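QA checklist item 7 of 12: single-chain prediction sanity check.
[x] sequence parsed
[x] length recorded as 241
[x] structure emitted
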Amino acid sequence: MISICIPCYNAEEYVQKCYKVLRKMLRSYSDYEIIFSQDGSRDNTEKILFRIARKDKKVIVISYPHRRGKGFGIKNCIKVASGEYLILYDVDCPVHAKYIRKMVELAQANHSDIVLARRKFLNYPLIRKIASRVYLLLTKLLFHHPFKDLQAGFKLMRRDILGGMELKCDGFIIDTEIVIKAMRKGAKISEMEVPWMYRGKSSTITKNFLRVSIQMFIDLVKLWKEVTFGNKFIMKPSPYS
């Protein structure tokens, strides 16, 4: 079984299209579920999602009245997911859904516990490209990992590797936390290059770029302290997470 997890916030312009794209792509799979984690949206995202779920029993909606953060939503998706493979997918569909099948095939062929998307940016703003490169260099310095992209909102995880993994971050670095802790557990991690379209002009990161960047740096240092010294640092959610 495959579980597709889509965290979303103020995404009324994307959720219906995202659902249709995934439903079409998953048509050939006999067993799957689509999990939307609605995170305190102030628009019609929640109403649209519950309308979809009433018509399609393969759709699960997790909804919160107040913003808790991307990481909080992903952690709750992990709790309710039933699939052997859990796939994180951004609601604005920055990567073609056909790569979901390619990612599953790669995981099966390589016996991978995790498959990371390595983004090939097609129309990314220069400031975001620079920020991504700086972030990657910082994580390499702190964690000495060999990967080329940790933060893409598209990755596959085998549910077994997540068992017993204590995830703490409620914010954007949840992707990094998963990979680093999986690496420390000895997980087999593969990478796959995917073309990546930028559709984030109205995203939280873009609108609050400086504050989000500072919060991500703080959370990254907490993660480094935890995995380095074994201390239990609590990563408190930010209103921009």
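[x] summary fact logged: The mean pLDDT is 90.
[ ] second reviewer sign-off
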